């Protein structure tokens, strides 16, 4: 019977994602219809219910053979292939979304289902070693689902119980302010932290939610909310604070992870330690990985890393490469070690080793199979659009028991490096960053790859620092650079651009690929700009002079669907829509 009810829970949890708020509450069968005395009897019932929500953590995307994953696709770092133009974040960056009639991300099924869990969890008797932990998981999931909506829509209704047709005050309620919503999210995360065990105390550390994961989620979310409220002050998207309290909470949560001492950076050969961090088939016991998804195609896992082959189906940008310092620790614009970056043959020379372990250039290894080694010779520019393929995430050594189509590479959701970066950025935003803080965070990351330290008293200004539309201290520029280089292609870039209110950096611009040498031109039909670089989005974007057409008075949030505004007249539309 338990298996039957679990299947019902999973089916309902998945199906409600397809329905809008009003349809979800008024037309779908409520989850409380599946409850009966045979469920909510044991800790195992709680675990089974919660297991259905783990699919909401999105690991490797569904893709065909050789389609490389990056959650930064559609930002300034990675452009989708022209045959898939308009997907990912490109529409947001270009400001070409339309108000949807329904759907559009305004989906409340997961929140309704987790509210049902939290409303019924007390039916399981206290006692046992995991009951309180599962209560904590419930609060974590509700915060996680709210945070996803919060980033897209800002202000939201705050709903804390399963809603029925009789709850008209909720069904037709207004949105709470973005600050009130985030305070609610924080309260759920804090509840999760108070109740969950540390990862090392669990039977499956790293793949089951834990106190450590909740702490890093708190640090991540609080940094987002705090810097949003700081940099959006005076705009139509401002919150009710200056963001400093949230930034302090981000710093405190990150510091707790550091002080607890349960995690540390992986170290090794500086020429490949970063590359090898992202292509492992099992992260169990890895000291840096806090939360990951394990894949095993032999037991039916449907999607996993498919970088067993090449090409990628998207391309990294030449603009992204400029964030990487020369190997003497100086910006490329002033470093005597810089030898040029226009071609794939030059771009990685005398640079931060993480560039060579992220970008693919001719001579890199594509595959090692037994005694045979296959080398990368030239990019498929038509496939990538930019001519710069991904080296990061690639599993190049063939396991003879699996063959070349080995997708069994785990996906990292959270790692210790992010906690270090959050702590450094939060302290710098607060104006309290010390050299000791830098040595504990940024310089640990640089030590791993053999890069010179960041010295607060000796920062060389970079003539190519991005123009975010407002002045920024030298140290914040360098911390943002370090965040780019360390977390490249891991899915943080779009959120960073949004929370920093950085539209001046990309609005009206177009990001390009590598220089189109005669040899590469002969292999490609991708447009080329006046400076000779591959320019795949030429004649594709909506803004002036063919650049991104982002509207800073509208496009930082997405619109609510019109049917929700019609059904509930107390909902208001986001600014500019």
TrEMBL record:
Cell location: Cell outer membrane
Keywords tagged on the record: Cell outer membrane, Membrane, Signal
Q: Answer yes or no on keyword Cell wall biogenesis/degradation.
A: no
- RagB/SusD domain residues are 313-577
InterPro entries from the UniProt entry: SusD-like_N, SusD_RagB_dom, TPR-like_helical_dom_sf
Against Pfam families, the record matches this protein to:
SusD-like_3 (PF14322), SusD_RagB (PF07980)
Describe the location of the SusD-like N-terminal domain by residue ranges: 110-220
What are the boundaries of the signal sequence? none
Query: Is Signal one of the keywords?
Result: yes
Q: Which family does it belong to?
A: Belongs to the SusD family.
**Per its record, how is this protein called by name?**
RagB/SusD family nutrient uptake outer membrane protein
Species annotation: Cyclobacterium jeungdonense
